[in-house]
Amino acid sequence: MALSRGTSPNELIARDGDRVDRLYAIVSGATTWVFRHGIAYEVVEPTAPRRRAGSHESLAAPMPATVIAVNVQPGAQVSRGDILVLLEAMKMELPLRAPSNGKVTAVNCQAGQLVQPGTPLVEIGE
Amino acid sequence: MRPIRRLLVANRGEIALRVIRACREMGIEAVAIYSDADASAPHVLAADMAVRIGPAPAAESYLNIGAVMDAARRTDADAIHPGYGFLSERAAFAAACEDADVIFVGPPSEVIEQMGSKIGARALMKKAGVPVVPGQAPNDQTDAGVAAAAEAIGFPILIKASAGGGGKGMRAARDAAGLAEAIPAARREAEAAFGDGTLYVERLIERPRHVEVQIFADAHGNAVHLFERECSIQRRHQKIVEESPSTALTPALRARMGAAAVAAAQSAGYCNAGTIEFLLEGAGEWASFYFLEMNTRLQVEHPVTELVTGTDLVRAQLQVAMGSPLPWKQEDLVQRGHAIECRVYAEDPANNFLPQAGPLSLYREPSGPGVRVDSGVVEGMDVPVQYDPMLAKLITHADSRDAAIGRMTAALRAFPILGVRTNVAFLLNVVRHPAFASGDLHTGFVDEHLAALLETPPPSELVRAAAAFVEERPAPSASSGTQPGPSRTAADPWADPTGWGR
Q1: Cross-chain Cβ contact B428/A38 below 8 Å
Q2: Who among A1, A34, A89 is closest to B463 (CB)?
Q3: Domains and CATH numbers, chain A
Q4: pLDDT: is B216 or B137 the higher one?
């Protein structure tokens, strides 16, 4: 099998014997995106897992969003599935739910705040 | 007759581009408006004039009637096309145009007012003999008042924004607990999306199809329908796949629904393009249809109708707005072949269709016979977080439904979008699903088949090899940038120091 660049930028041509295939691939940050036959694959470089195992988890916004409501305070006992923070992005509400039972160890946001993805908003310990 | 020489497009994205294209074809100058998030957006760059109307949040820009009217005055525009969404169904906006003696490309403000109120619209439909779904907008709009009205109708129940459309502020509830959660959420969404938190409750009809009829009326008392669109494939109560004709309609049922839609339009004193949405229970001769709502504007999915009827609805809108009679008679209009539209969104289907924002690092549209793409984005730009994340509408047209599905499948497979997650693979699974092929559709289709629709194969060896290939040999052009602006697109030959060919 051989890969070569196609006629348009980031287009790749794969040839294997008589077979021909077309793909698109691009590196964006830590992710390499590959498109083939209608499916976009995200190939992530293997990095050290950000989340420490088991005992501690943090919840972050999946995208830039506005905090509408913060339903918990530090010290609160929460159950898996509880809505901890209500976000709004693109006119839609996005509830952030507790991923497991635990105790809230930190709340790093307040209603009305614009938050960025990746920033921990609520931290939960055991 | 009152000619339009300069028209302001009070919208953004693909629909602004669609209207600008029609203006260009008719020799009309097009004025774009933009927020700070859209300063060099495609609709701005395509216009003849462009006016800043405010900061990024829609409430302070595209929804700001005063700012839009100022822009119209400043540019001496003699007409305004509202597109869909934003101010398109605000009676106050149409009224502001009427007061300023600017042609509003749409119906008169009092018709928008009447049809925008679910109560007014229902009353009118009942009078015109069009069947309606049991429901009401409670006078008591407190949580308890809305809950009581809902329980009086009975579960399952639908809570929706009285001013709304497009599924925003719409929630279903099957019991009292669900209702208690749904009411405040629906109200907040309604307020955010429409600036009006009034709620409406109605009986939820199970497994209905969403079939709507395109109507068109002029100022001389003529009204026609341009047949149906089936829009049953929805997620979050928002259409994602639309087609015409519907597989559920027989010629007799089509004629009945068309006649009902025309009667509804005429009794409303309607003018310009509009859509009567129906819920269809069952299929064929024995189906019953209920009036759902009237959209007093051009629909997102209008291209489906344009392709099967061979019409240009935006051109016709402008002609009618100028005072010309309708360009067609009912007997001239026929459905020819089959058209399907897929709405391509920046969203993550696997994560509850969560909207995505980010860089369109790579974006290439498919083309070919029977393939139409109406889009509002270009490669290299950022998908902004403030607005609806629809990137493009992909529409295919062919002699038969099977051929249109085949064309859609091939076109989706040739629509690479990278850098931001999209629903392309999901749409491909929809149009290839056996239940879609057999035409067995209902508005719960996506939920019913969700697991199958979300399936994607793991990356093959070839895909991994392609990833390794570009990681080891980065393309000479800037490709991983997140900066907006067309100058950063990977397709820009000037950004490529190696020259034109590769």
Answers
A1: yes
A2: A34
A3: 2-44 (no CATH), 57-125 (2.40.50.100)
A4: B216
